[in-house]
TrEMBL record:
<feature type="domain" description="N-acetyltransferase">
    <location>
        <begin position="85"/>
        <end position="226"/>
    </location>
</feature>
<dbReference type="InterPro" id="IPR000182">
    <property type="entry name" value="GNAT_dom"/>
</dbReference>
<protein>
    <submittedName>
        <fullName>DNAT-like protein</fullName>
    </submittedName>
</protein>
<dbReference type="Pfam" id="PF00583">
    <property type="entry name" value="Acetyltransf_1"/>
</dbReference>
<dbReference type="InterPro" id="IPR016181">
    <property type="entry name" value="Acyl_CoA_acyltransferase"/>
</dbReference>
């Protein structure tokens, strides 16, 4: 492991802002403006996971996940790390899409039993199993990484390639931070997100088919339609 790498816990706000400004010049969004999700934009930003992860995400939809206070706090914690951004329509102020980004550390210990919402607990449970199979930190021999957590586009702005460009913008933004190498972990739960990850060169680290994931002998995620599995992804970006 390279002990000389930048500590992600000490990233400076000015460096983050400068990287974001460079990113906005490098990734083209003629239909909107990229903006950071700041404290004054939280209410609007929360509308995106409420829409995209309640109505459309295969696992959540199959078990009837609701946007509970616990789920809201989860997204607030993500956004308040100050790395997530969204695309805003300058004409009417619509939030067109968002790219959630946070940091993750090998030392993190997540106890799903502390999650009160039963449906939410089911989702985090399968993601925990997936993470163990992927062994992201062991595979790359690292202690920290960036985590792509949540990607969504508002219904009225879909089928324009915005999701893929938001993903590209996330990659460019992290590269512009000056961290080298950059490690990114994530999951894809739908055919749409998995297609984007794979088109952009992410490595598939593990996969769990929905029909094969059982708890107490019962399949948890039923009726996921065309979406058949959740995959764990990883990417290393290096200047070397």
């Amino acid at each position: 492991m390279d002990s000389t790498r930048t500590n992600l816990k000490t990233l400076r706000r000015d460096a983050i802002a400068q990287a974001f400004e460079r990113t906005k010049k490098e990734v083209c969004f003629p239909e909107g403006e990229l903006v950071f999700i700041t404290e004054d934009r939280l209410d609007g930003a929360l509308s995106m996971p409420r829409q995209c992860f309640i109505d459309d995400e295969p696992m959540g939809k199959s078990i009837g996940v609701q946007f509970t206070e616990e789920f809201k706090l989860f997204w607030l914690a993500t956004f308040r790390q100050g790395l997530s951004f969204m695309l805003v329509n300058p004409t009417n102020g619509d939030i067109m899409g968002f790219r959630g980004i946070c940091t993750a550390f090998k030392e993190d210990k997540d106890d799903v039993n502390q999650i009160k919402d039963a449906s939410l607990r089911k989702i985090f449970s399968i993601l925990g199993v997936l993470a163990k199979e992927a062994d992201f930190f062991g595979r790359y021999d690292i202690e920290e990484c960036f985590y792509f957590l949540g990607l969504g586009v508002a219904k009225q702005y879909r089928k324009r390639g915005i999701a893929k460009r938001l993903m590209e913008a996330g990659i460019v933004f992290l590269r512009n931070l000056g961290v080298d190498p950059v490690y990114i972990k994530s999951e894809g739960t739908s055919n749409f997100s998995k297609r984007i990850f794979e088109q952009l060169g992410f490595e598939t680290l593990a996969e769990i088919k929905y029909e094969e994931y059982e708890v107490d002998g019962e399949v948890v995620f039923k009726n996921t339609g065309e979406h058949k599995s959740v995959k764990a992804y990883g990417m290393k970006i290096s200047k070397a």
